[in-house]
Write a structure and sequence with these properties.
Shape: globular
Number of helices: 6
Largest sheet: none
Distance between the termini: 32 Å
Number of strands: 0
Strand content: under 5%
Structural class: mainly alpha
Helix content: 55-70%
Order of helices and strands: HHHHHH
Radius of gyration: 16 Å
Number of domains: 1
């Protein structure tokens, strides 16, 4: 078995596991120690950048943040969150809500990616040993 075949097999296995249990529990398994925080980027690609925020059901605790962002799409919201992070701007939500926000956005984006994109995501994780994905144009 070649390296490429092995990576494809592993990526497909992870995508299948995420399909049955969700991507977040699988991502949690990449933490080397239980309870250790892992940095995961929101997987943005052609499949996810145009997700309309109005179509999603967000908790009312995030309404002010969403309003302040001026975002209509997932891509706009992620750009706003990156801007805030890079400029040390508070999101004006509790740390617990911020954690839930990022987990929700990761989950929503992953679930809206095609199966091929999901496999690409897991292959990237395996090949780079990183849960942070470069932006896809």
């Amino acid at each position: 078995m070649t390296h490429d075949e092995m990576m494809s097999l592993l990526a497909n296995t992870l995508a299948d596991a995420a399909g049955s249990s969700g991507c977040l529990p699988i991502l949690d398994c990449f933490s080397p120690h239980p309870g250790e925080e892992v940095t995961v980027s929101i997987p943005m690609c052609d499949d996810t950048v145009d997700i309309v925020l109005e179509d999603l059901d967000f908790p009312h605790e995030w309404e002010e943040l969403l309003e302040n962002s001026g975002a209509d799409t997932m891509g706009d919201l992620v750009d706003y969150l990156c801007y805030c992070s890079q400029n040390n701007i508070s999101l004006a939500i509790s740390p617990e809500d911020e954690e839930k926000l990022y987990a929700t956005l990761i989950d929503v984006c992953y679930e809206n990616m095609s199966y091929d994109r999901q496999v690409d995501f897991w292959r990237h994780v395996l090949e780079t040993n990183s849960l942070v994905c470069e932006a896809k144009e």
